[in-house]
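Checklist before submission:
- one chain only
- standard amino acids only
- sequence pasted in full

Submission:
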Amino acid sequence: MAIGAAPPCSGWDRGYLFSLIRCETQNREEVAIMSRMYETIYIVKPDLADEENKALTAKINEVIEKMNGDVRKLEDWGIRKLAYPIEKLARGRYMYLRSDGDAALIAELERRLRLDERVIRYQSVKLDKDTVTAAPAAPVEAEETAPVEEAASENE
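Returned file contents:
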């Protein structure tokens, strides 16, 4: 036997090693098939017409369907003020997308969003399985002061 060469395996060792290799390849195939949950929030220009917004949404849905993904939720969060000006814009239309797919789908989706001039910013995040997404907070309405005034007049 040469120096540094591995000793030959016995029949039992060889069978065990081959079963480990077979097991590893099956697990890799299962991981490749497994789809993950992703959230993508992207901001488009606020002066975008409804037809253009629908065309962009259709384009995003087409990319996801083409890459064997699944769109779970697509919401328009409306026009909001940006934290800082982007491309000399102070406002943007926020869009929320919840989808299932693999990493290649998200890479292609982000590539398409980056190339589209209508999109100002985007961000995708992988979700845990037990994560529940919450809708954006609604503005709090002012409480009526009439019951307080009535209670004050009763105490007098």
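Reviewer check: The domain at 31-126 is CATH 3.30.70.60 (Alpha-Beta Plaits).
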